[in-house]
Amino acid sequence: MSAGNQTAVVEFILEDFSEDPHLRLLLSVLFFFLYLTALVGNSLIITLITLSPSLHTPMYFFLVNLAILDILCTTTVLPKLLERLVARVDTISYQGCLTQVFFLIWSLGAELLLLTTMAFDRYVAICQPLRYGTIMSWPLCTLLAVTVWTFGAVNTSVNTGLIAQLTFCGPNHVQHFLCEAPSLLLLSCSPTVINNIMIIMADVYFGVVNFLLTMASYGYIVASILRIRSASGKRRAFSTCSSHLLVVSLYYSTVIYTYFLPVSGASMESGKVVTVLYTTVSPALNPLIYTLRNKDVKSALQKLAPASW
């Protein structure tokens, strides 16, 4: 390690799900299937939207960004997890651990911002339909996407940089199956006050503020839908945001459980399962949610399929 860090620890030991060889084999197959599903599904979404002019709208532009973030998140977590399950490699280097922290914080923070942006897009589409084309212009959409990625990058650079300044000179057993900021701070031999303050600030902004903004958007959306007199009109309006609402509900419920509930022995064990949900299961399910519940995507897929043969 560099002298600037004064770090004695050169690697960390990550926890495993189980020592049972049969369960390890089952988990290996499951996680490999989920990783393959996430990669193929999100890559298909990106390709389909890119090649289909009918899907070149703000909603699908943000969906491409979501698919990229999902690929980034699963690739940050699952390859190392599969290596541990299959090859029994339970250690990760200091540099590898910080790299995993960097990309994990980046993908999670950017996804929370992106879900808020997508909620705003659905708010404009349903509550301001006549002004949708004017408000959600391509310059604004591009600016919003750049802001999402930039704010996520700044946040992870600050938090990962602060972790890199800490001294790790004793215990190196991370109480998780991946490297994340809270788990690493517990192992530090130096004060972590600034780190904890920055994490709390990031949690409040990326978690609480964005959650409230998203809920506010859907509050206006629900109120607008209830004012529609015809049942068919209500169903049509709700169908335009149901997929996104389902993704938001799944993602926020798992993130809130992991980062905002008190930590105990039992909750830490169940927290590992919840972490799998938002880093693995959610990215694998998102393409299915947006394709199975979206007529435009299914129609574009049907048009593109014959052309590819």
Automatic annotation (TrEMBL):
The chain crosses the membrane at residues 25-48, 60-78, 98-120, 132-152, 204-226, 238-261, 273-292. One of its GO terms (molecular function) is G protein-coupled receptor activity. Residues 41-290 form the G-protein coupled receptors family 1 profile domain. It is a multi-pass membrane protein. It comes from the Eukaryota. Pfam families: 7tm_4. Keywords: Cell membrane, G-protein coupled receptor, Membrane, Olfaction, Receptor, Sensory transduction, Transducer, Transmembrane, Transmembrane helix. One of its GO terms (cellular component) is plasma membrane. Belongs to the G-protein coupled receptor 1 family. This is Olfactory receptor. The gene is LOC102833541.
